[in-house]
Records
---
Amino acid sequence: MSLARRIIPCLDIDGDRVVKGVNFVGLRDAGDPAKLAARYNAEGADELVVLDIAASRDQRPTFLETIRRVAAELAIPLTAGGGIRSAEDARSVLRAGADKITLNTAAVARPELISETALEFGAQAVVLAIDAKRAGDQWTVMVRGGREPANRDAIAWAKEGVALGAGEILATSMDRDGTQSGFDTALTAAISSAVSVPVIASGGAKLPAHFAEIFTNGRADAALAASIFHDQIQPIRELKEFLSARGIPVRLPC
Amino acid sequence: MIVNCARPWSTPSVAAFRSWAFAWGSRHFYAASDEAPALAGLQLLPGRVRSLPPVVKLPHMGWNRLLFKCKSSLLEGVAADSYFYFAHTYAAIDQREETVATCSYGTEFVAVLEKENMFAVQFHPEKSGEAGAQVLRNFLRLCA
């Protein structure tokens, strides 16, 4: 008996639509969030992530309404993030129907935000999202949707975030995101070895073999992808059957 | 009524007492919990809720299976290999007669308990897909 490795589709949200870009730019429309959520719920996704990529104050009510519409379709956990700057922001996202929040840029600017939200909502509800870009033999943290370097080492930041109360790390490789060339195994393994909480690998997924690799050598507890699921390049059931056949514990949909 | 309050002490659960029902942390049933040591539990059950051992990644986050211990009204019609969604660090480790199913993560802990008209689960039935829906249907039938 063991904990199943999770497969997590991610919806990047701009207003009330799902969008997808390559290396965080070149966005195109990828569908209705609630419709995609219902499909993933039925196909055996283990969790769903929705990220407000615009993360602007003006669009906040639209994003909260999107969370409500998505949550109504799900019998699996929902994680939501993008633009959460305070415990108050976190509360509105959780009240809209999310089970967990992700913190990114605002936590880099003010790390206490992690402990504030963890104390109020529990560590299990606080996911620290780290956008990491390779710099020599290390990874540097990027913020503001990957546009600005934060002058922080990604591994050190993951450790600090967990010490402050983050219950999970969502590690996105900026180098791999949108490239479909496979997850960044070295980055994920380095973070997973450094922290005591579960790690979600993100960025670069295409083939079932990429998932098998990240769950074994990458030591990931969960793997996140967007376009390969949205575009139906990779059905979730087939992916899970592939992993199961290789001895990786997954929850097979009935 | 199902309430899933997002508080640090809210180990999710479903509970029923005679004709009324609520969802609350299973730790509330016990005498005490290490998650909030200053607060006493309802003491409906003796014992203490403790942290899972840090030999595994914590929180215990994700889908896991149950070990059925005895006949359960709450788990009726639930396949033995079903997965349920867990998101917690603390659990009741000591098993007693009311334990009808356990889960293993770092150690074996109480996942489902039933005692007379009292029911509690450690996982989130409302986030556990079809298996969770079956538990909720059973619960509603037991409350009726």
Note: Helices of chain B lie at 129-143.
---
Amino acid sequence: MKSLLAYSKDHSLAGSKSVSPFWVMVRKEVADQIHSWRFIIMALLILLTWIGSMYVSMSNIRGAMENVQDHDSLYFYLKLLTITDRSLPPFHVFIGFLGPLLGIALGFDAINSEQSNGTLIRLMAQPVYRDSLLNAKFTGGLIVISILFFSLNMLMVGGGMLLTGVHIEGAEFVRILCFVVLSIIYVAFWLNLAILLSVKFRQSATSALTAIAIWLFFTVFYPILVQIILKGILPDPSMLGPEQMAIYNEIRHNFLVVIPSQMYTDGTTTLLMPVVRSMGPLTMEQMAMAVPTPLSLRESLLITWPQVSGLIAATVACFAVSYWLFMRREIRT
Amino acid sequence: MEQPIIEIHGLSKTYGSLKAVDNLTLTIQRGEIFGLLGPNGAGKSTTILMLLGLTEPTAGTAQICGLNASRHPIPVKRKVGYMPDNVGFYNDLSALENLKYIARLNDIPEAEVETVAKEMLISVGLEAAMHKKAGTFSRGMKQRLGLADVLIKRPEVIILDEPTLGIDPAGVRDFLELIRQLNQEQGITILLSSHHLHQVQQVCSRVGIFVGGHLLADGSVETLAANLFKADPHVVQVTLRTTSGLVENDLLQLPGVTKVDIAAGAVEISGQSDSTPDIVRYFVHKGYDVTGVQKRTYGLDEIYQRYFENNIKENEVHNEKSTGLFQRSFFGRFKKR
């Protein structure tokens, strides 16, 4: 132990530059996530669904392409992402389903496992701002998700290009990129929700179960609940005329659109299927004068924007609450 | 005089109706080893957390290295090394990786991180376990790693919360020796909290006794003993084969005896002057079989015990000021009988 004393005397800090504590934390978080079994399992699951849906769409692409009349708007790669023969759902539907699980898996024990391990207090005794930890947890997760989704989609584009030699249009590429960004935001929402719960609950099992409960509520029970409420306050749809039916559907959609998975589904549908021109039902008058061409990229983005901003808002709200809870919390083991 | 390195003034912390720390005022000079003593739940850890700016005080201020801990926690944490009582590490990372992480967080340049961390591990005697995962470490090894972790930032003040908890006696000796060396050779100020009295007694230049959120006394062990046992500095413990028929008042008649405590098989007699011969003569005269006579010296144990019992009495009797502490407990004893 003698040399310990010697070290403290001689050692000088003057020298090369160092990384800011925040990025040190991010680096560690990313390394932790990639090495953790749950991420490997989730990534494998997503990879499998990706392979499955790519296989299905590759084998059905010929039939889909033959139906195309207008060769200006081929959108080969978008079709690759969305076409299915009903045996397997397309990739974006899978992400709508597995994305929350991925987010929850990456974030459910972010803070509380550090606390129960006794590492949180040790970390907080270092000269770092408390929010850096929260930011680093989120940024780390975000980086991992981004790399995963980005590489999967680029693999798809690259693979498709190698196999078919069809060239990709600029607008198509931007659409795919937007789809990737939307998916990342969607998973980021669930990641943030999971981090929030990990700040709130001391037990990581509790936070994981709560996160899964929220996810189940939104995917299974909320639509049922909406159905029941609509039945109570609105007349039976079978008795309605077509115009009233449109209003009925609009009300129903307005109820559903507040849940993250619906926002994601709506957003991806618009981005990946340029022919979709509205989230809600369209009346005959609206359709009457419309030119039956795919929407331009800008128009699709405009339609998606409410969904994107909704998801971002939900993410920010979760983050703000976890900030508020974490910043003034007393940290003890 | 030099500015004190730790200055606590009127520090209070309340959790709901519970007063964890109550109006604490304490100064610690540079280069001291200060021992914060108290039973569990006395508010030691809370005080330490407030010193580091990890908990906001309800009232009062804590200045450390001339900085307000709740206002400027980051510069404070740069200068203060803290080892919590239940030090934890990332179980999936090796000892070296754990240490490197902390080194990076402390702005140690990337080029030096690896060598500095290795040096640290070697110096705390963990070179063999350097690449082992921290999850496999024993309590003592974790404690050593914790010390490396604290020292890697080259602190001016080290705060150790129950540092000797759960280490074997040899480990404790090494550990305390190292603390003493750090203090002597580099002038690092050390604040340690503990309820292990003997260990603290060995290294501390000053101790503070902390019970129920109050600092009851502070000073060196000798001064505390002298102050506390002013009333009856001499205590003789007499062991008898049987104590039946022994009357307390008879013993109190002896010159200089102020307090008598009869327990099964033993009598403890406190007095102003050393009246051991009189006491022994008395017992022999009365025909008791004396099996042992022992003069008591005061250590931290007794001090602690005394303060502790006074504090309990203080809660029973009404709150008066501290000069009468001893007398109160003295009379309290009589009332019971």
Note: Residues 274 and 294 of chain A are 5 Å apart (CA to CA).
